[in-house]
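Recall that a protein's primary structure is simply its ordered list of amino acids. Everything else, from secondary elements to tertiary packing, is in principle encoded there. The following example makes that idea concrete.
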Amino acid sequence: MLIVTADHGQSFNDFHKNYWGHNSNFAAPQTHVPMIVHGPGVAPGVEDGMTSHLDVAPMLMRHALGCTNPLSDYAQGGDLLDEQLNHPWVIASSYLDYGIIESDRITVVNGTGQWKILDRQLTPLDNPGFSPAVFEALQQFRQFYEK
């Protein structure tokens, strides 16, 4: 199986908010990366749903290594070759903070726990409701933590 991808994209002041380079926000120019997968059982096509690099290991475990365990035994992602895969949200992180990316918003949480909610073009939202995805993401962080 052959996979060609990148770990991040690059911003070129796409939304006129002076973001350049990478690792400065969680908008599409920095998080939407190309991925090409080729190998036995991989049908040609284009996937437009929301996926994550966390979906690569489950795909490899199932399709390249023949693992039949439930994905939740070893991964937080889904199988990239599952036609039904389309996450309602994904987690991305930088050196300093993490973002919960949804179709209509990005919730950014910094290292001290302070948060802000932005639209997908990095404009702060006025009085947004707190998304249930944030609580789901926090639970996912605990998946492999033992008390």
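The radius of gyration is 16 Å. The chain has one domain: 2-141.
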